[in-house]
Hints:
Elements: H1 5-8, E1 31-33, H2 37-41, E2 45-50, H3 60-73, E3 78-82, H4 86-97, E4 101-107, H5 113-121, E5 125-129, H6 133-146, E6 150-151, H7 157-163, H8 165-174, E7 180-184, H9 189-203, E8 212-218, H10 223-226, H11 248-258, E9 261-265, H12 267-281, H13 287-301, E10 310-315, H14 323-328, H15 341-347, H16 349-353
Parallel strand pairs: 2-10, 3-4, 3-6, 4-5, 7-8, 7-10, 8-9
Antiparallel strand pairs: 1-2
Helix pairs in contact: 3-4, 3-7, 4-5, 7-9, 8-9, 9-11, 12-13
The protein binds ligand AN7.
Amino acid sequence: MKPSLLQRYREFLPITDQTPMITMGEGGTPLVKAERIGRDIGASDVYFKMEGCNPTGSFKDRGMVMAIAKALEAGSRFIACASTGNTSASAAAYGAHCGLTTLVLVPKGNIAAGKMAQAIAYGAHVLTVNGNFDRALQLVRELCERYPINLVNSVNPFRLEGQKTAAFEVVDDLGEAPDFLCIPVGNAGNITAYWRGFREYREAGRSSRLPKMMGFQAEGAAPIVAGHPIADPKTIASAIRIGNPASWKGAVAARDESGGRIDAVTDEEILEAYKMLARTEGVFCEPASAASVAGLRKLAREGMDFRGKRVVCVITGSGLKDPDLAQQIADVPLQEVSPNLESIEEAVSTLLRR
Ligand code: AN7
């Protein structure tokens, strides 16, 4: 069996002899080389860090395993979070695995079907809040101050500790830090965690340099780009529909210390990247994840020079999280056929003639 995430990076994590070394197989996700995008933008290599391959289909499992291990160590029996969907799916899974009571608050009507299904299936108590994510987070923070409930949002410091391991893996796989790290930004925890991971690894002598951190928000939910909170964030990428990110300062530090950028991409650009990733790279991700690639393409289009550069795009979550979207935007109609060969030949005659 491969070593668990907590075991593998134990020396870099806040683990004591009392920390239960739980695992559901998180981390160790593949770094897949892009076939098309690298060529399109003239980079030497573009890689996808496939975080949808985690047990609940998103990068959140890295932070959750650490947060839950520390919650167990502290004797907590009750965990809670607010979420645009992936954090709640992950909390619900690890909560179930460890026999904890899990409460999740999600913004009503703005959570992808797959994520909702996960929270329900794992047996979490799900509250749909008639408000956005920022409000839900505020409320769950207040709740956890009043009651002995362990908050597992990324304001819990153990979450980012776990999430920084993704940067370690990128360096371990490439043998060095990449030139650029492209990543979607919502609550801004992940960009903060990656930057910490890259810095710690360099300090430990595992790499000799640091990447430029390139974060991308959705245009209708781009508070860091605008420089002020957005009261009513809007984007098709519901995972990053966040108007007042908890780790705002961490994201700005990652950008400024690395000489990177935080930019916005439109929903149109996100959907274009989402389709292109699936059709030309075989990578089916959720729309929020496609923001990293949409951003990379935008910068290349604007003339940023990626020649000879190594770029890693973080594919934060699986496309299966949001099956409705894939079907809504499909421009290939489903075709019904009679159950006989003639009918099939007729339906695909143009393909067969080629
Ligand atoms: C697929 O689950 O905020 O900037 O509550 O699900 O660290 O917030 C999810 C965020 C990117 C943004 N990609 O990461 C939640 C939640 C996907 C995500 C982000 C999220 P952060």
